[in-house]
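pipeline/complex-builder :: batch 7 item 3
reading input block
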Amino acid sequence: MPLLEIKADELAARRLRLKRENRKLFVRRFLVNKAAVTGSVLIALVAAVSLFAPWIASRDPYAIDVVNRLKAPSAVYPFGTDNFGRDLLTRVVYGTRMSAEVGFAVALGSSAIGLVIGLYAGYFKWLDQILMRVMDGLFAFPAVLLAIAMMAALGPSVGNLILCLIIVFVPSIARIVRSSVLTAKETTYIEAMHTLGASHNRIIWKHILPGSLSTLIVQGSFIFAEAIIVEAALSFLGAGIPAPTPSLGNLLSDGKLYIYNSSWMTLFPGLALVLVVLAMNLFGDGIRDLLDPHARRSLTKRLVQPLKQRPAPFQAGSAAADEPLLQIRELKTQLHTERGRVPAVDGVSFEVGKGEVVGIVGESGCGKSATAQSVLRLFDEKRLAEYEGEIRYNGIDLLKLTPKQMRSVRGNEISMIFQDPLSSLNPVHTIGEQIVETLRLHRPIGKKEAWTKAVELLRLTGIPAPERRAREYPHQLSGGMRQRVMIAIALACEPQLLIADEPTTALDVTIQAQILELILDLNRRMGMSVMLITHDLGVVAEACSRVVVMYLGQVVESGDVRTLFEKPLHPYTIGLMQSIPRLDGDRSQELAAVPGSVPSLDQLPQGCRFAPRCTYADDKCRTVMPELAALPGGDTLVRCWHAGKLSGMEA
Amino acid sequence: MITTTIQHRELAAEPLLRVNGLKKYYSAANQAGFRQSVVKAVDGVSFDLREGETYGLVGESGCGKSTLGKSLLRLTEPTDGEAFYQGVDLFKQPRKAFQTYRRELQMVFQDPFSSLNPRQIIGQALEEALAIHRIGTPKERTLHAMEMLHTVGLQMEHYYRLPHELSGGQRQRIGLARALILNPRIVICDEPVSALDVIIQSQIINLMRRLQAELKLTYLFIAHDIAVVRHISDRIGIMYLGKLVEEADTDSLFANPLHPYTQVLLSAVPVPDPAARRQRIILEGDLPSPLDPPSGCAFHTRCPYAMDRCRTETPVQREASEGHFAACHLI
């Protein structure tokens, strides 16, 4: 036990160090965020002015000096004086302080109340009905109008103003918090807390609240700014803070009668108002970006929503008849990530022949999808990725094409379908429209003709009643139907190569069988080559003629399906095969599982990449990377120092 | 292996959990927003969970298998039915009293990425379960959590990690640890390995079997992958549109699948052997909408053997051989 405790202390210390590092990282990210930095500096300025008001402006903000009334700015009165001869600098400083106080109190008050209302309304359905109807009622009035009405009833005073503004702003906070609670409530980890028997309050305050805090901070800072503006508007109309007290609204109100002769009376309070509001808004924007960096645009969307202009026609090269359709040689794809550049694809070479179905297998994180996306050059080449090597399609190197030429290859020569058909389909267009769009993008045909073709394509993919289905939206279809639609879109321009990235993984097993059968049928009937990416060796065995096994961005074994399944050579391939529970396997035995998991790409092991998980690894494996090579007398290519020995052993 | 089978036989008379006629109906408004219709997600399911066994529940998405699991833990309140655990009907317990049973019935979720609070370190996530039930001092809880990490094959250093710093397999181990830290007797596993890669999947299955033997657990294993279910389960129930269509010992089910749907499921599994091209029954069409289930036998719209009788008359479950039940007119 003491040993355990010592270890625990040591771990706690390490955690503390990590926390400190994370904080440093956050500071660095904050410093590059211009809006947040500028906003914070301005807020600090406003805060300093408010806190040190008596020292900055030593004069009395109420002292009337009729002799010096309406004096223009000078050395004695930097901002000039007002109609009662009061020093404007002093009044602006105190006015800023008053406005900031009101803004702060309102932001804090409405956030706190709105948070509680939002949390409980979002969590308890019955409470939601009552609370949110009240909030909706408040929300129905324009903020300023509501505030004026309430102030008229209560009478002008600072306290009343703050109270009114809090009431005005509570609904917007409550709504935002409520909607974030509604999403959080549905997550599995909240459900998991229920199974542990956690109380409602524990779940609300400990597990749901932290997720809402970031939006709350952002919204709070915006309300700060808005409260100041509404205060100014109310005071300007005389319904806000009573007259002699300096607030930015009162100062503007005072100045309005003298705006033509003594513009400084309006100018300086106006500038102060702009400054405070700008500070809060910049801060809010900056923090929002910092806490919630918007997600990168998904790759699938770009494929389905291509640019409107028709791309330049792709001149197919004059490849010799016996040459493979697709030849990938030493392909390297470097991706820029937060942890530096990582080789997602690292020297991959393989071929896809005409009319051939080639399977690419491996665990997630092994570079299967990255290879496929590299073939279509789907990565953002300006910021995200760099390619090296050669991807010869019909004798032409795709990596040398211009982006415009590349567009005419995508969807036209080479098509791709994805694992999740719903996110790849546009929800606001009917599926017929989406097929027509793809068709007309690549082919100069009329709308009517394209529609007929679209219906035909849907029929080809086995969709019943295609005329009717073409007029339906993606959400009206089942998962299997959607994948058929994706295939129909992919086939629209009769591509020579179809890249299918886990096309059946998200589907039920009976539907999976249908879709796989469809892809193979199209392959046979249209002579279309297929690059089938999957983690399911069963799918590979049933569908493919050749197979490429990938591990950590490299090909570790490739060859004819029968040979490879009969006699896998690489320990990783063997591990993959043995780990699958078989319908005819011995249930009393444990499954043979390769230990460990795929390391991340920024922590590549030395030597053979599989060595840390391999039972056969020796010193050589751990230091020198083996090459992909054929064993004497075999066609299968394998990347392993012990392949020769292993193949002898198995035999 | 032998001892457990004997145990089964002895305890078979008194199952650990007896589920009787479980129903969960949802009301769903139609597209116009009025005229509510009823979705029968689970429609009268009965089965026993015997101590120490793994009961596999198989079916396609939307067949109600997950809803069934959640109803047992009352994560969603069942519409009707009984679930007897130690002579007590869990569904009739008031909320407060049910809390005490929560310790005995735990759950492992499918998605290891969303079933952990992203802002909570692993150690806290484990300790929280103990804190909720007021077990031990904070220090004891920490030690217990660390032991639990060791039990599920992780190191102590994972205690201070955040969920996103772990791989899918490691997260699923945490999911197991969190379920097991309260020392439950029944663990309901809702697709615990379907989000994982094959190798990691086999690691977790091996771990689950080991833990079952060590901690004398009873599993309700809900999954769609019939090969995985076959490997881990002692008995299997097949669900289709909210109903149990077949139930049998694993070996008996695979040797002699009686219901046409079971036969289809078995034949649809791709076999990782290119030499063995089998005759596969490929089903026509999709799963019917549970909003508007077919009359008679729910499977008749897709069944290759459907007769007139199937369209009108709902088949009842019959015992074809000892412990092998099926609901089909052909039997």
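note: The longest strand of chain A covers residues 340-352.
queue -> next item
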